[in-house]
# Entry
Amino acid sequence: MFSLEQIKAMNAEAGQKARTLNKKPHRLNNIEEIEAMPPFPFPNLGDEADNVDEVYERVDSLFCDSSGFGGPGEPALTIDQLKRKLTELIDEHGEIFVGIESTGQFQLDLAVWKEKAG
# Structure
């Protein structure tokens, strides 16, 4: 199991890589793309996700199972629950942008943004 310090260091490293490679959140605007997942195309932004908050409006943060072994009764969203949630967010906001904000051993946090109004 990863310690909190290890997770913070991994996310800082992912943020540095995201900045170096100019990674941006994945644009998601159609249900067909969601239905075809996994694999999930979301880039690991790490702590760079905080800077994305300055460009886009955050509409949600999702805690997800990344192992494939999670079940519906657990706090982390399963793959099917995540796909349903992303579909709901597109229905509500139209085009959304998604990136991995934090990774742990068996879960990850996804950040979801939309274009800022006017």
Observations:
- The mean pLDDT is 90.
- Residues 4-115 form one domain.
- Helices lie at 4-20, 31-35, 49-55, 79-93.
- The chain has one domain: 4-115.
